[in-house]
Amino acid sequence: MLRTLRKFKSVVAAFSVAVAFFVPGSALAEAGSDRSAELMRELAAATSPEEARSLEREIVLEWSKSGSAAMDLLLKRGRDAMEVEDAERAAEHLRALTDHAPDFAEGWYELAQVYYAQERLGLAVDSLERTLAINPNHFGALQGLGAIFEQLGDATLAYRAYAQADALRPFDERVTNAMTRLDILANGIRL
């Protein structure tokens, strides 16, 4: 019981740091290439779910370019290991990636997904925080934080994370459904 309480406290402490990244238009420089910035603007103006999904795929492709063939290979190997549900091997590749390319947001994001799959929520939050420090527009990282906050029962932080993701990524039913589910818990009853 004491071990579970300590684990929960460390996750909550990590959340308090992560909350700092829930500020639209933060002072952090816009991450990514000019192409990804252009695609993000197009995504915000998308008029259909199909258009949004297509733009999201292009954005993720842009974000997946580290500028190094070796780092791209580590990312691919990490993703491939997760596809066959080998989280330990994925973590090895992705930790090597983040060690060698600490400013590559997509490496941290993929590592967060591995940690989440391993139920290592504190490490997942830390990796999502690093993702957002590098790329504040990473809608996947915001959605991931929302899912973790929701899992831990913090409706307010979960709603805020999902709302930030929704502002960047329209037409995502999972995010919209989560916001609907959490609205009264997070925002109270509106009269």
UniProtKB/TrEMBL annotation:
InterPro entries: TPR-like_helical_dom_sf, TPR_rpt. TPR repeats lie at residues 105-138. This is Tetratricopeptide repeat-containing protein. Keywords: Signal, TPR repeat. SMART domains: TPR (SM00028). Residues 1-29 form the signal peptide. SUPFAM superfamilies: TPR-like (SSF48452). It holds the Pfam family TPR_16. It comes from Roseivivax halotolerans. It comes from the Bacteria.
